[in-house]
Amino acid sequence: MAQEAMSDISLEGVHPTYIYKVVLLGSMLVGKSSLAYRYVKNDFKELLPTVGCSFFTQTLNLEGGTVRFEIWDTAGQEKYHSICHLYYRGAQAVLLVYDITNKETLNRAKLWLRDLEKEFLPHEIVIALVGNKTDLAAEREVATEEGEELARTKDLLFMETSAKSNHGVNDIFVAIAQELLQREREKPSALSPRGKSTVDLGESRTKTGCC
Amino acid sequence: TDVNISNSINGLNFMGILDARVGLQNLNSGTPRSFSLPEYGPGQLSSALEDSHSLKSVDSGIPTLEIGNPEPVHCSVLNVKRKQSEPEIVPDRAFQSACTLPSYVPPHSLTSEQDHAVRKSSTFPRTGYDTVKLYSPTSKTLNRSDDISVCSVSSLSTELSTTLSVSNEDILDFVVTSSSSAIVNLETDETHFSDVTLNSSKETNEQNLQECCQDTDVDSKRKILGPFTNFFARNLFTRRQSARFEKQNDVGWKLFGKVPLRENSQKDSKKIQKEYEEKTGRAHRPLSPKQNVRKNLDFEPLSTTALILEDRPANLPAKPAEEAQKHRQQYEEMVVQAKKRELKEAQKRKKQLEERCKLEDSIGNAVLTWNNEILPNWETMCCSRKVRDLWWQGIPPSVRGKVWSLAIGNELNITHELYDICLARAKEKWRSLSTGGAEVECEDAGFSAADREASLELIKLDISRTFPNLCIFQQGGPYHDTLHSILGAYTCYRPDVGYVQGMSFIAAVLILNLDTADAFIAFSNLLNKPCQMAFFRVDHGLMLTYFAAFEVFFEENLPKLFAHFKKNNLTPDIYLIDWIFTLYSKSLPLDLACRVWDVFCRDGEEFLFRTALGILRLFEDILTKMDFIHIAQFLTKLPEDLPSEEFFTSIAAIQMQSRNKKWAQVKRMLIFDN
């Protein structure tokens, strides 16, 4: 489903590089940008409000291959909702983020989920439900079980994180990468959901995994 | 010494700095007194002002380095030194002295003295020259600041530069150099510097007595200004000129007395050291900054003095002659290198300073033109070729707010009263929400309470995330409440639009250039323009139309890059959304963003897209080598050091015509097609 490595990889032991588009979705102020910033720069700071979308990349080496994430960090304000499908179109993975100190953000996440179900086939996309801000445990409004329950019924990955105290951030991205690689193995010849752009993208945006 | 007095009177209305100097001479030099100097009441103030009318007429209305005083100015401290051998005289109210601090003299006896002095000064310009001259530039400087320049205030308010004002051989230079303390530094004169500082601090008490009321005032102002000084130095504040004027004087005065020398030397000890060496022995200082520039170039490189070839210690075996010779040679090479480097640096600084002089000159002229010719005849002139050209150069900060207001207009007929009403309503809502009050009367029905609450909370959070590096919009910052008020009032004025992220940046830029109510009027009218309405209402269809129109001109202007973007499936929404929503204020350096706003006010929405193409054109070579994600990353986070001239040249090279169709026509066509 991702753009697999170029066709000239035939050498044994050379891992292909997979490029995946990962989109962060969720209500405003749940910490989407902070999660991305923590994951990519391993830092936490006050970030400017996201207008439209901002972009990050991160490469990780796993047993099954090298994964390069193209992270799309979207604006969370409700008002931007109507342009959000611009961003998650063609994604291979979505981090659906809510704030454990704000029950309303979990409800919003459920709405997002409905949108995603309309846009994607069930196994076309990896969705991870992420409860952020565990550092604010004292103000928790959403129990861990609640998130787990939702994730179980909808077959999502689930993790609670804190971008501030760097808890679980790396893990969730690794889990997504592994899940994506797993699916890659299950259907090695699957076509990319990116449609007509696949050929171009495949050529220009993948590399052999030797680097 | 008649002239002495008159000239010092001349400077008196400018308080602080001048007085410090007067007092200084008084105590330390023990100049024999022959006159008493009148206290400066309001009456004298005005006469003093009159006295300096000639200076005013020169005034261009903007800080400029070029001040047309041809005569050299002596530093008071030098005089002090010269006269140190003379008997010390304790200042006394009964004494009549050319330099007596003003309040020592009984007011009634002064009026005539004052008149006399003033008259003399105009008829008798040159005698007693050396002490006299000291004061005139000061007064002149402050005079100028009076009229205009917010920019100059800015530099005054930084502690560093204020310290420099003490050290500066000519306060004039300092005040007018609006944005760079480093360059001011070039002109400081260390010799005078230390003397003045030391002496003036001794004087503080005495001066405090006289000006205690101003003093407290100053204190509070300083506190306010403290953390934001760097920002002020960026020439962005252009309004509230009269208030600024006071501030400037006050701050200058206060810091003059209190800021310890050390702070300065810490910050730039190297440069000061150089300047010191360079200028020792110079009794006469050139007034013109250009002369200063030259002087800076002439200086002998000095860093080499730190590099000394020592003899080998006696307890070590002697070097072979050959080796010693080699080492000496190496040493000499190093010295030559160091000298070269220093000369180069000096030349660079000279060039910078000259450029700054030129720039400030041209800004000064531009302010004159804007204030005297264009603004009074706005309706007839705003579309003329000449004005449009001048407009393209960038509007000087001091008139920027006015021009923006006029250009944006007030189609919505918003009055200050309406703003007050909206604000009052917003405050009511905040209160009822914070007290957990029940649903307030629902004129904006359809917007749930939760939504509204979230949006109010969002405003609060976004305010402190607006230009966080300026530190003026954050909680406790001077413009935090202003920004909050404008955004809150807008959500009450237009509940159908409400607050959309990105608005805070637009409001903030307006606040930096306009008073609160005027900023609100400009804000509301600006957001009411078709392009802004389309975006802030997140009207997806209309936004796509704008993007499509943009792509027409993109392909026309930059076909190669356009193809590359197409190939990489890089659509304009990726980068345009942020740029258009915030009118570039979030993605470009603030000074550049303001210039983009200038022309946006002139040309309308079309210029926003032209700017986008200018950016793409500027980075075309880099972008064609990048893949999708890197282009996206690059364009959503532009380099911070965009070269402004190249940037505008690049924009100018973009033709907003496609097959003889202009932007508006292309857009209209596309709208019809949909």
Automatic annotation (TrEMBL), chain A:
Kindly state one GO CC term assigned in the UniProt record: melanosome
Top-rank lineage group of the source organism: Eukaryota
Q: Which UniProt keywords apply?
A: Cell projection, Endosome, GTP-binding, Hydrolase, Lipoprotein, Magnesium, Membrane, Metal-binding, Nucleotide-binding, Phosphoprotein, Prenylation, Protein transport, Transport
**Membrane protein topology class:** Lipid-anchor
Which Pfam family would be a valid example here?
Answer: Ras
Q: Which reaction does it catalyse?
A: GTP + H2O = GDP + phosphate + H(+)
Keyword check for Signal: no
**Location(s), subcellular:** Cell projection, Dendrite; Melanosome; Recycling endosome membrane
Q: Which cofactor does it need?
A: Mg(2+)
* Annotated stretches, region: Disordered: 185-211
Q: InterPro entries this protein is in?
A: P-loop_NTPase, Small_GTP-bd, Small_GTPase
* GO molecular-function term, one example from the UniProt record: GTP binding
Q: Name the EC number(s).
A: 3.6.5.2
Q: Name the residue ranges with Basic and acidic residues bias.
A: 202-211
- One of the GO biological process terms: plasma membrane bounded cell projection assembly
Does the keyword Protease feature in the UniProt annotation?
no
UniProt xrefs under PANTHER family = PTHR47978
Q: Which family does it belong to?
A: Belongs to the small GTPase superfamily. Rab family.
Which protein are we looking at?
Answer: Ras-related protein Rab-17
Q: Specify the species.
A: Rhynochetos jubatus
UniProtKB/TrEMBL annotation, chain B:
Residue intervals of the Rab-GAP TBC domain: 394-604
**InterPro entries from the UniProt entry:** Rab-GAP-TBC_dom, Rab-GAP_TBC_sf, Rab_GAP_TBC_domain
Transmembrane stretches, by residue range? Answer: none
Name of the protein described by the UniProt record = TBC14 protein
Coiled coil where?
321-363
Q: Which GO terms describe its cellular component?
A: cytoplasmic vesicle; vacuole
Where is there biased composition of kind Basic and acidic residues?
A: 264-281
Superkingdom of origin organism = Eukaryota
What is an example of a GO molecular function annotated in this UniProt entry? small GTPase binding
Name the PANTHER family for this protein: RAB GTPASE-ACTIVATING PROTEIN 1-LIKE (PTHR47219), TBC1 DOMAIN FAMILY MEMBER 14 (PTHR47219:SF21)
Residue ranges for the region (Disordered) are 264-289
Natural source organism: Rhynochetos jubatus
Q: Which UniProt keywords apply?
A: Coiled coil
Q: Report if keyword Cell membrane is assigned.
A: no
